[in-house]
Write a structure and sequence with these properties.
The chain has about 120 residues and is mainly alpha-helical. It contains six helices and three strands; from the N terminus they run H-E-H-H-E-E-H-H-H. A three-stranded antiparallel beta sheet has the order 1-3-2.
Length: about 120
């Protein structure tokens, strides 16, 4: 049996992979956990909607769910939130920059260069 956080992550992973909004039944079926109740998936999706991580829309009597943002945008937001915890943001950024691979550093460098040109 999965813990709540693991189930939330698994459900949003289904939605990130989806090419269209999914019903609770479709998410339940894709999670492929025999011990997982339909109502549990419903509760998890509703919780994710309240947190603003997924959006829902009516589809007849059912709801269809989709991720509120891309996986990349979500991760970027987590990184910004983590940076808020830093007493010294500059030191935290430098530490992060030193922890990435050379290829990742090149991506960051190129992005910052483009931002400098357009800003």
């Amino acid at each position: 049996m999965r813990r709540r956080g693991e189930l939330e992550r698994a459900a949003i992973e289904v939605l990130w992979r989806a090419d269209a909004p999914r019903t609770v039944r479709e998410v339940h079926d894709e999670l492929a956990d025999a011990d997982l109740a339909y109502t549990t998936v419903l509760t998890v999706l509703d919780r994710l909607a309240r947190k603003g991580l997924v959006r829902r829309e009516r589809a007849g009597r059912a709801w269809r769910y989709r991720a509120a943002s891309s996986r990349e945008a979500y991760i970027a937001e987590l990184m910004r939130e983590a940076l808020e915890w830093a007493d010294d943001r500059d030191a935290a950024l430098v530490h992060f920059a030193r922890s990435v691979s050379p290829a990742e550093a090149a991506v960051l460098r190129a992005s910052l260069t483009r931002r400098g040109r357009s800003g």
